[in-house]
Amino acid sequence: MDTIAKRLEHHFSDLHNHLPPVPTAVEWLLPLSNLPETGRVFSAFLEKYYSDMQPRTLILGINPGRFGAGVTNVAFTDPVRLVQDCGIGNNFEKKEELSAQFIYKVVYAYGGVQPFYQHFFLNSVVPFGFVKNGVNYNYYDEKPLQEAMKPLIRHHLRSLLALGMYAKTCICLGEGKNFQFLSKFNESEGFFEKIVPLPHPRFIMQYRRKRVEEFVEMYLSALKNG
């Protein structure tokens, strides 16, 4: 039987055929290629939460980092959250990631893992990550990289919409450069009717930690009202 899970698994596998070259000193972070365990846990996650044909609203971050989706390929879900919150065992080093900590506060405030993933698909504008000089790098950190990513981003977002995601509203994590890029790109490409920006989870956890509950409420309002 055709399901969103099967379509997503095929999509992420096929994305490796669409990777553009990156500028000198920038390296791809490709967990599905480099970590065999990643394919297993990603498939288990999709089968657990997306084995239906119900459309979801997209929530898009920037691109994966080394300790979260850069390991698990499950957006904003580190190896600890994968076990404790999603019930999916894994043999990865159990490092926690700041953005994942915040996102799962939102997940539980929304009602829990099952209802959250029943209504949303978390991913990123660029589906795989980057490393430069041994640290995380964002697609917008340099113009040549951003320009090189446009065909991949176009393919990624159009494919997600074609396989069963809503086009009415997209929630963008990152009110600055990520939102600016996605909004401008959306003007020419027409992916979504509306894009709702929210502060990025890492920004909240690094610089606004004392106000975490306030930001959880902000997220809940956006998730429930678009």
Key descriptive features of the protein:
16% strand, 7 strands, four-stranded parallel β-sheet, alpha/beta, Uracil-DNA Glycosylase, subunit E, globular, 11 helices, 226 residues
* CATH topology label: Uracil-DNA Glycosylase, subunit E
Distance between the termini: 31 Å
Strand order of the largest sheet: 3-2-6-7
CATH class: Alpha Beta
The helix/strand order is HEHHEHHHHEEEHEHEHH
- What oligomerization state is this entry in? single chain
Strand content: 15-25%
CATH evolutionary superfamily: Uracil-DNA glycosylase-like domain
| Unreliable stretches | none
User: How many helices in DSSP terms?
Assistant: 11
- What about the largest sheet? 4 strands, parallel
**Domain count:** 1
- The residue-averaged pLDDT reads 96
Task: Kindly summarize this structure in a few lines.
The chain is an alpha/beta fold and 226 residues long. 50% of the residues lie in helices and 16% in strands. The chain has one domain: Uracil-DNA Glycosylase, subunit E (3-Layer(aba) Sandwich), CATH 3.40.470.
Structure characterization notes:
The protein is globular and about 40 Å long. It has one domain (4-225): Uracil-DNA glycosylase-like domain (Uracil-DNA Glycosylase, subunit E). It is α/β, with parallel strands linked by helices and 226 residues long. The chain has 11 helices and 7 strands. The strands form 2 sheets. It has a 4-stranded parallel sheet, sandwiched between helices. Helix 9 (177-189) links the parallel strand 6 (165-173) and strand 7.
